[in-house]
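In this section we walk through a basic example: taking a raw amino acid sequence and producing a predicted 3D structure, encoded as discrete structure tokens. The instruction is simple. Fold the sequence below.
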Amino acid sequence: MTTFLRPLLAIFGALTVVTGLVYPLAVTGAAQAIFPAQAHGSLVLRDGKPVGSTLIGQNFTAPENFWGRPSATGPMPYNAAASSGSNQGPLNPALIDAVKGRIAALHAADPSNTALVPTDLVTASSSGLDPHISPAAANYQVARVARARKLPAAQVQALVGQHTQAPLWGILGEPQVNVLQLNLALAALR
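The resulting token sequence is shown next.
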């Protein structure tokens, strides 16, 4: 029995060290060397302090800020520990009511805006944490943000243009705007 047990324990110990220690340290070291910002959470710093991440949305609700996609996480919005979608289909009455409520909130925040509300402003992403909105969703909010900040709409529109990210390699995905970075750029105008 000990002739089988000794090699078994040796292999178990060796594989534990390789897969539980050496491999994670090697991958972490390579990531920090090649992609340091991403390896450290893609943190956004302001005055040397982290204010968020470019990978996780935040709950902006003030009229002077651009609003991101709704979050489906609980018990609070944009809870990274509870990343998930709502699992509500397009015919689910709860989703329909939630979308109607979000449209009403957008109209209440900017009653003069009669444009169609972009879908990504009223529906959550599959993770519930999406930090990006479409350029159409950002453009929908320009007039409200400009009024609330007492800025010319053209200046706010120019910021949206500057913060619109092209698809990856020009072909993968859609243009997008990171809401946190856009709101920080607006705050820097003061």
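Looking at the output, two observations stand out. Strands lie at 43-46, 49-53, 132-133, 164-165, 176-178. Helices lie at 2-34, 36-39, 93-109, 135-149, 153-162, 179-188. In the next section we compare this with other chains.
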